[in-house]
Amino acid sequence: MQAPRSAAVAETGQLGGRGNAAAVGDSSNDTKTHFRVCRFIIETGVKLGMRSVPVATACALYHKFFQTASLEVYEPYLVAMSCIYLAGKVEEQHLRTRDIINVCHRYFHPGRDPLQLDSKFWELRDSVVQCELLILRQLNFQVSFEHPHKYLLHYLLSVRCLLNRHAWSRTPIAETAWALLKDSYHGPVCVQHRPQHLALTALYLALHTYGVQVPRGEREWWQVLCEDVTRTQIEDIMTELLQLYDMEAKCT
Amino acid sequence: MDRDLLRQSVSYHGPSLFSLLKCEQSENPDFKQVVADLSKSVNQSDKDDDSPVVEQFIARKADLLFAPSWKSTTLVEEEWQEDLREPYAIMPPLEQFMEVSYEERRELFYRDVERGDLVIGRITSIRDFGFFVNLLCTAGDFERDIEDLEITGLCPVRDVPSTGNHDDPLSYYQIGDLIRAGVKDIDRYHEKLTISLYSSSLAPNLDRIKLGVISKEDLPLHYIRGEKVGSGNSDAYERLLDSSPGFSNPANVDVLLRKLGINDTRSPSLMRGLQSKHFIEDDFATAIRKKQSASWALKCVKAGVDHFKSGRHVDAMNEYNKALEIDTNNVEALVARGALYATKGSLMKAIDDFELALESCPTHRNAKKYLCQTLVERGGQLEEEEKLVTAEGLYKRAIALDDTFQEADEALQKLQMRIQKTLKLKAEEASREKEKQQTAETSAEKLRKILKEEKRIKKKRRRSDSSSVTSSSSESSSESSSPSSSRKKSKKRKHKRRRSSHGSKKRKRRISSQDNRTPEEEEEYPLPANTSASFMDQKQALAKLLAEEAEAEDGGKSHGKSRGRCDDDPFGHSPQAQSSKPRGQHDGPGVNGHKHRHKSDDSRSSRKESSHDFSRSRKDSSSSAYSEHSRKSDRPPRDESTQARGQGSSEVSRYDRRVSRGSDGSERRLSSGDGSRASEGDHKKDLPASLQDIFNQIAEFEKERKKK
């Protein structure tokens, strides 16, 4: 176990200096680091043309990994790259290591030419592949997640029927909810709650933002959609979500 | 910023949001525009509780949330159809789970139903003006729980399509039938609904759906599922969702994204750093990969070039192929490989590679240079293989690419000269063949003319009363073919003029006027019409006939050709034709046959005689303009006759020469004509004995006259 870890860290030390800030064991720093790395994952996902669900899987893998692992031992950016690679395999959107390495290299050295097919490239590739195995072992090979995305989409469909079609078409509820859900992956909130709750919160927040009036019955619409959630819970999750936006200002 | 949205949001949250907005969005110019409007609507808040965090969030992100570009969903107006395969979980209307009250549901239904929606109901009563339907559920995308709302719709008779039996269309329907119909009209105030069974009443994306009586199986899935759900179970929705097969479909996310119109790969984010404007195209994976492939391929190419220079062609080729595997259509690799092919001698492959390279990079200097050289070399190869046109094409391409390439120019010029030479040779061959063909043609034409002449002669026989009939018939029979129709026609017309009405004069004049136009007119010898002389002309004409026959067999080309053309053409321009016309004037009725037998020799030979005749018969000449003109033109042609004769002799066969010699002197001619006749044994066999008698008589007659 020791050898691959150190080798991985040593090789990816070349990637850039950002990860070295993780040497400080402050939790708030850790949070910031995680935020930055997740931002890195999401950005890379966009550049690689990944769909929302594989990106979510990559972030979830990352968060889960560092729930049990320490930032001092593992280079977070390498872990992130491997998470992306692994997520592509899990969610059936296969990515080439060459593309991942290219994009990441450019992320850290903007404007430079792409890597040549030299020893450096091969070392990086080897480290990504080895790290992938590492992550699998750390997570006990449990790498499939139930994501809130499909819940959210079904909820959106149901709620759409409740509303007047014109009100629906002029209010960007779907986009906002989707954006909120994707942004929630910057933090560990995605792995700390049930996917239904996350989806519900995103939808709730979207409707709330635009002041949309949903008809009321014996039960609230969100109660129907997810039985075991209370309004407080929703609000808590909402708060966590919104904190992420605040963190953006602090980190970047 | 979308004012309506903002207003809605602010009125929902109250003045606290408004103040926050003002605070956060103070620099936003879009916000400033709407702030005035908003201040009016801020009075109360519709919501129950305060949520400062949310309000803070809204205020901060207002520029994104309320921007018009934020609304990025694209609603796809596809054909709606019942998704029986269930790509996603189809759920009953939420109203049902929420247990929304009767009044509210009814109110909401009448608020939201629109023309063109699909509804399903059961027939409750049938009247003569239509039938009433109690609505069970809605179909299409508009899902509501209305079964117990007792909403009735009327379907009037005119909206019931006939079944084609000429019966009352309503008789097809019974109470209790399940009907699927489209909403045609809504009276929201009175809560009345009119439905129709015609597809035209439906919205465009629904109009494929069959309306009318349906069975239980056709009921929408969400309704069927809704029936199974018992009330009171709070987690019914969840359980139903999890158990639906569509929920386990791994692709349901994509299907639903498409249905809702959300774009997945570039979907918007509320994070500042993730806005699309921050992404540079060059940072994307595909762009980087391309650049990288190009540079990797270049390395291989360099290695390959080294191999090539050291003579290791196989290694070089391997390197080039490797480079092209890494980056197909890499310009440098293609050029290098092309050069290698050219060196090895596979010129076509080299050309292909260069062309491909130039497609991607038209300004590549080396590619152009090598391509020109290879094209010229290949052109040389093709030239040796006698594929001149292809070679020419290649040279032209080389020049088009690089017009300073001298070798290509030189090669092209050489080639073009060569092509011209071959073309010339071919042209000569072709013309020679044509001549041969012409004679064949003229034989056919002559035959045709013979036949025509026979017909004409038969007609004239009825009119005429002289022995010329026989002579003409003999002539016509003796003719092989004679192209000069003008001569024939002029003779015919002169004959007609003499014998028939005045109208023929006009024709002749017409012909003569046309003839006047021709430059060869001067060679004419217009002979005045004279019955006596016509017999002499007849003789001459006969001699000509003989000569012509001889010539025709020998295949006199151009003259024969021209004669052939003149067959039915009154505008015949041949000198022979024109010169023969004067003779035609002299001809009696019997010489119709002469008209088609004009050869240069004959005409020339007869010209001399005709000039004699002309001088003799000047007084007797007709008053036709043609003859007058021909008088004038007589002198110069005399001079030219010798020339013409000279020309003619070069083209003529020995038979002709004999004939022309024979016809030099009028008396001499007769005898020589006989002699020629004798010598031309074959040709003479067509002449009947009676004709010979006539000739003898003529000869005697002439002698007598001359003595006088």
From TrEMBL, chain A:
Chain ranges of the Cyclin-like domain: 39-137, 157-243
Record's keyword annotation contains Metal-binding: no
UniProt GO molecular function: cyclin-dependent protein serine/threonine kinase regulator activity
SMART domains, alphabetized: CYCLIN (SM00385)
Segments of this protein annotated with the region Disordered: 10-29
Domain of life: Eukaryota
Signal peptide: none
An individual GO BP term: regulation of transcription by RNA polymerase II
Keywords assigned by UniProt, alphabetized: Cyclin
Protein role: May be an activating cyclin for the cyclin-associated kinase CDK10.
Family the UniProt entry places it in: Belongs to the cyclin family. Cyclin-like FAM58 subfamily.
Name of the protein: Cyclin-Q
Chain's gene name: CCNQ
TrEMBL record, chain B:
Ranges of Basic residues composition bias in the record: 486-511
Domain S1 motif: 116-198
Pfam families cross-referenced by the UniProt entry: TPR_11
Low complexity bias locations: 466-485
Biased composition (Basic and acidic residues): 599-621, 628-642, 653-687
Keywords linked to the UniProt accession: Coiled coil, TPR repeat
Keyword Coiled coil: yes
Annotated region described as Disordered, given as residue ranges: 452-691
InterPro entries: NA-bd_OB-fold, S1_domain, TPR-like_helical_dom_sf, TPR_rpt, TTC14
Biased composition (Polar residues): 643-652
Coiled coil: 405-440
Keyword Coiled coil: yes
TPR repeats: 331-364
Recorded GO MF terms: nucleic acid binding
PANTHER family given in the database record: TETRATRICOPEPTIDE REPEAT PROTEIN 14 (PTHR23184)
Name this polypeptide is given: S1 motif domain-containing protein
UniProt lineage: Eukaryota, Metazoa, Chordata, Craniata, Vertebrata
